[in-house]
Amino acid sequence: MSFRSSNASSGMGVADHSVHTFLDLKRKRVHRYIVFKIDEKKKEVVVEKTGGPAESYDDFASSLPENDCRYAVYDFDFVTEENCQKSKIFFIAWSPSAARIRAKMLYATSKDRFRQELDGIHKEIQATDPTEMDLDVLRDRAY
């Protein structure tokens, strides 16, 4: 069975590997984060990098390019006021101001279609610079 599908407006597909890698993060917790990029030649969203469960938020943030767009998923662990261990999966649309206009357009038009393939996302963040997605932002949004 293939999850591969494309978005009529952008023509962008989603690689099966991207969906399976997300499911590994969601179900098995083998990844702390996944960074996805659009492969313009293949016209699909592919996995660029994964981070192991022991990697930090700083490791994740530093894996995003300063001058190009990416999609990312981050598994955020936190403790509630009731002292319960919880986890929220964040989808982050990274579109820095230094990115090319064409890249921003491509990522913007493909985002909703790609996001729909990732069943189990709890929160979504649009970020144009690192301060819009720092750990405090995630913490505030998680509750």
Automatic annotation (TrEMBL):
Belongs to the actin-binding proteins ADF family. GO terms for molecular function: actin binding. Residues 11-143 form the ADF-H domain. It comes from Aristolochia fimbriata (White veined hardy Dutchman's pipe vine). One of its GO terms (biological process) is actin filament depolymerization. GO terms for cellular component: actin cytoskeleton. InterPro entries: ADF-H, ADF-H/Gelsolin-like_dom_sf, ADF/Cofilin. It holds the Pfam family Cofilin_ADF. This is ADF-H domain-containing protein.
